[in-house]
Amino acid sequence: MSARETAWGAYKTIADAMRRRIAEGEYAVGSLLPSEAMLTSEFSVSRNTLRRALGDLEREGLITALPGRGRVVAGQGDEAEHEADPHLQYRRIADDLRERIESGDLQPGDLVPSEAALVAQYAVARGTARQALVELQGAGLIEAIQGKGRYVLNPSDRDV
């Protein structure tokens, strides 16, 4: 029986192949990996075996899982790695909107970009965009009006 014929050998073989593809640039930093369905088909393994291999690559910092989007190749300490981190993505969106509010680009009473607009602009999952907006609401910078959207609050209406 060869190493490939066991689940352990299969997941190790997949992890090695993926490492090689990343190192050789076949999967560039910041690029999405093929879907789990495509990879399970390519390697003729179960989803659990594939996930075990991908888990190793995540622990090694080679890839990052983005909820709702898939897995991307992480950079080695560069900006692409930070943009792949969903926690930093929502912070970046919130910081950008906060800057627009504080600079006057978004005036009191202005409609704040919708979740859908933020998803398209920043190429993030809807939950990531929502998290940024919720943070700004919590900071008292914007308010949500049911069925109408989110609006910039007047400085006098803000909780300081």
Structure, explained:
- It contains 7 helices and 4 strands, in the order αααββααααββ.
- The chain is elongated, with a radius of gyration of 21 Å.
- The protein has 160 residues and is mostly helical.
- The strands form 2 sheets. A two-stranded antiparallel ribbon has the order 1-2.
- Helices cover 52% and strands 10% of the residues.
- The chain has helices spanning 7-23, 36-43, 47-59, 79-84, 86-103, 115-122, 126-138, and strands spanning 63-66, 70-73, 142-145, 149-152.
- Helix 5 packs across helix 7 (126-138).
- Mean pLDDT is 82; it is low at 77-82.
- The longest helix has 18 residues, at 86-103.
What is the compact description of this entry?
With 160 residues, the protein is mostly helical. The protein has seven helices and four strands; from the N terminus they run αααββααααββ.
The succession of helices and strands, N to C, reads: HHHEEHHHHEE
Low-pLDDT runs of 5+ residues are 77-82
Q: Based on DSSP secondary structure assignment, what is the total number of beta strands? A: 4
Helix content percent band:
40-55%
What is the rounded distance between the termini? 69 Å
Reported for the largest beta sheet, the result is:
2 strands, antiparallel
Question: Roughly how many Å is the radius of gyration?
Answer: 21 Å
> Helices and strands: which structural class?
mainly alpha
Mean residue pLDDT: 82
Shape category? elongated
Strand content: 5-15%
Q: Looking at the chains present, what oligomeric state does this protein adopt? A: single chain
Please give the count of helices: 7
* Widest sheet, order of strands: 1-2
